[in-house]
Amino acid sequence: MSKLSNVRGRITYISSHAKQEKLFAVYETTDRSYWTELARCNRQEFKKSGTEGKCIEARELIIALPESFPNLYKPDKLLKLFTDRFREKYGVECIAALHHNKRKTNYHIHLIFSERELLPQPTEKVATRNMFYDEHGKHVRTKKEILDKNGNIRKGCKIVKKGDAYERTIFTAKNRLFKQEGFVDEAKHFYTDLINLLVKDEKEKLHVFDRNGLYLATKKIGKNNPKAEQIQADNEVRMKWNREVDRALVSEVPEEQIRQIKQEYITDRIKLSVRAFGDKPERLSGIIISAVAALTLLIYKVVKKARELKAKLSGTELLHNTTTTASLVNHPREMQVIQEVKPEPPVSIMQEQQPEPTIQQTKPSAHTIHEDKAEETVQTPPKPAMPEDAKAYLKLEKIKLELDRQNEVIFQAEKERSSLEIERGDLKGLQSLTKKGALQRQINEKTEQIDILKAGLSGNVKRYGYRNVKEFYGEYLTAQRSYWDYQDRVEKWENNYGVSAKPKQKSMHKRIQEYQKKADEQNRSRKSYSKDRGGR
Questions:
Q1: Which of 40, 140, 288, 367 has the most CB atoms around its CB within 10 Å?
Q2: How far apart are CA 297 and CA 293, in angstroms?
């Protein structure tokens, strides 16, 4: 958003065919005389306030449009839609122009709007006596104060006679909303939503950059911008931070820790710098570089801790697999103690003394037959179906493996660069003169290689349609949770209703025999264990 100190001149510029490469349409919600009166009112109020600087007469928004819009919509109707929507939302007058450049790569709207609204009825203040004003427009008490040495009225001073209107107001005060920092974000979301409703291709849908997110926004360099070099340098360090954020996400650094570093090392330090030294854009580079170093250190700590934990778990699992089975085989008494601590359900005395069932006793009753039939007629619920986001997990997992492999390559390259830096630092005497230059070139080449590899992390996910690594990981983690939940539900279904969970129905006689045999084995085991303890 731009502040306009010469609104009439800006209107002439954006609406002139002679001054624009390609002017499609101009749309106004009011006549041109409105802007003349608005400029006069703003200059009067600015003069009365005594504020230094330039008077802001109006404000301007530049709205970038998708390149498919010239083929989809008529320029005049499109411009009218965008302008009227803004007027309906904020209640101010506007003038807008729809432009394109010669290469047809920048289809956009210039929207100029007022910060004030017209009053339903103008208000006038009438002088009850003669009123005197000096050269600065300030009201003074007596005529003597505006006279020169010769008794004449000084140049620039004026007298408002009794009964005349000395002040006429036709506009409201400026709307404070347009001065607030959040207004620009609100307008971006407003027009982004409108554009996304009009686009036909999903790939052309726009997204508003989140200032409170993990990344830093880069600035567009306009044509003939005197600060182009400074903006380019700032963009480079901003991209360095963004690449390190991508790498932190791939290394599974928690987002909250990344956001904390951004807040502490960038946002807070910029505020302190402005408070201490004023607006110094050249200090931004050093602030961001220190934040990148802090984030790099955090990545190494997280990765080191993760590798140590993985090695510990792997060693524990191996130890468990090798020692547990060996101890149970070599120490049968421990097996008996385990059985004693967690015995199977005991057999009652009545069951121990129960005689071997005869054929007549094993004949199932009508009630038992009814229960068996009821068990057989229970309907098995269908096997859980895999949801769509769980299906996407398998594809996303392949992308994740690509990112992990590239991240490992980055770690190896950084390890090699660290070795070169240590070797350079250990040079002494004549070697520091002969080998230092060659080592420095190798370090520079390795640094350039690392930067390319880090940029490749974002490039990998963009090939699959994601804006950045954060967007990919958000979808990946959602799909992963859904896939794991689906696996749990399938496992429960298999345990309850799968083939292994449905043994064949045995006859009552066979079941009684197996139960009696199991009880006899438990009795013999307890007797032998008691005899062994008594002998010892």
A1: 288
A2: 6
C-alpha torsion sign, points 249, 254, 257, 263: positive
pLDDT digits (tens, 9 = 90+) for 2-22: 899 999 999 999 999 888 888
Closest CA to 403 of 445, 444, 449, 463: 463
Q: What is the pLDDT of residue 109?
A: 93
Whole-structure pTM value = 0.59
Instruction: Quote the pLDDT of residue 504.
Output: 46
pLDDT of residue 335: 36
Asked if 175 and 90 touch (Cβ cutoff 8 Å), the reply is yes
Domain layout of the chain by residue ranges: 2-117+172-204, 125-170, 210-354, 388-497
Residue tagged 């008490």 (tokens): 141
5: number of Cβ within 10 Å: 17
Count, in order, helices (H) and strands (E) of the chain. 17, 10
Topology of domain 2-117+172-204, per CATH? BirA Bifunctional Protein; domain 2 (3.30.930)
The answer to whether 491 touches 501, Cβ cutoff 8 Å, is no
Of the candidates 25, 14, 19, the residue with the CA atom closest to the CA atom of residue 70: 25
H helix or E strand, kind and range, residue 70: helix 69-72
Hunting for tokens 């409108």 — which residue is that? 194
- Give the Cα separation of 124 and 297 in Å (integer): 67
- Are the C-beta atoms of 35 and 58 separated by less than 8 Å? yes
Residue 59: its H or E element: strand 58-64
* End-to-end CA gap in the chain: 94
Q: Which two tokens stand for residue 22?
A: 């390609």
Spatial separation of the C-alpha atoms in residues 6 and 21, rounded to whole Å: 22
Around Cβ 13, how many Cβ atoms within 10 Å?
13
Nearest CA-CA partner of 292 in 239, 335, 329? 239
Question: What whole-number distance in Å separates Cα of residue 405 and Cα of residue 1?
Answer: 43
Residue 55: DSSP 8-state: -
Assign 3-state DSSP to the chain and report helix, strand, coil percentages, each to 5. 60, 10, 30
